[in-house]
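Saturday, quiet lab. Running sequence design on the structure tokens for the scaffold JK sent over.
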């Protein structure tokens, strides 16, 4: 599992409510379709294979100057994901996000965090003597962001493997909830703190039943190539 996360890093409840003015779109890839609101800070996604990329991100940033304290910017996007190819199931979900930050001053600081929730639309899982809708999540952060005086990249990875939840293992219809939080803080005059999210991508393992894991390997190669290209042009 750790090797899979490192590879991706090197290379990306049963109902959804939308605001009245939400722009809800459905885009389909090789084996799955994504339905989501493209008016959030995540912006419009691009579907390639069984991956969805958010690279037209607007104003997903936090800043603080001259001891004004903390600014927190957060947003959430809900994505319904449905496998439409007969006898193909989804088994793993991986999130890669990247951005950059700039801090000046001993009291200046920034953070970046993400949470990915996966919830089934059809299946229940045993919890004690009861059955509940299957769900799992991963919460991560970008680690210590401490470089002073120079614009520096950050990245993070979240992963949910349905096999980690008893009685689940695979699914054909789920809701993915992605939440990002950026913070920037300064405590003294003359200090600067700025952080932004620039891109994100979700890769999905979609396998035939019985599973053939090589399909996910090809998806990771495409996702990794995209993240590398984005870093080169950033």
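Result came back. Writing it out in full:
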């Amino acid at each position: 599992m750790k090797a899979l996360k490192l590879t991706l890093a090197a290379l990306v409840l049963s109902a959804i409510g939308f605001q009245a003015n939400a722009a809800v779109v459905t885009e389909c890839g090789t084996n799955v379709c994504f339905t989501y609101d493209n008016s959030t800070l995540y912006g419009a996604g691009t579907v390639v294979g069984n991956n969805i990329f958010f690279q037209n991100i607007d104003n997903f940033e936090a800043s603080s100057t001259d001891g004004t304290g903390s600014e927190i910017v957060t947003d959430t996007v809900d994505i319904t994901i449905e496998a439409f190819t007969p006898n193909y199931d989804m088994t793993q979900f991986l999130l890669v996000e990247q951005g950059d930050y700039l801090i000046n001053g001993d009291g200046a600081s920034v953070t970046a965090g993400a949470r990915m929730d996966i919830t089934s639309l059809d299946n229940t899982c045993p919890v004690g003597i009861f059955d509940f809708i299957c769900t799992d999540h991963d919460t991560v952060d970008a680690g210590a962001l401490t470089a002073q005086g120079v614009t520096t990249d950050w990245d993070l990875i979240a992963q949910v493997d349905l096999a980690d939840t008893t009685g689940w293992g695979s699914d054909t219809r789920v809701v993915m909830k992605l939440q990002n939080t950026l913070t920037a803080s300064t405590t003294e005059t003359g200090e600067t703190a700025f952080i932004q999210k620039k891109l994100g991508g979700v890769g999905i393992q979609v396998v035939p039943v019985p599973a053939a894991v090589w399909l996910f390997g090809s998806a990771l190669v495409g996702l990794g190539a995209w993240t590398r290209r984005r870093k080169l042009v950033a």
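Notes for JK: Residues 1-20, 212-219 have pLDDT under 50 and may be disordered. The first helix runs from residue 2 to 10. Ask whether to fix the surface positions before the next round.
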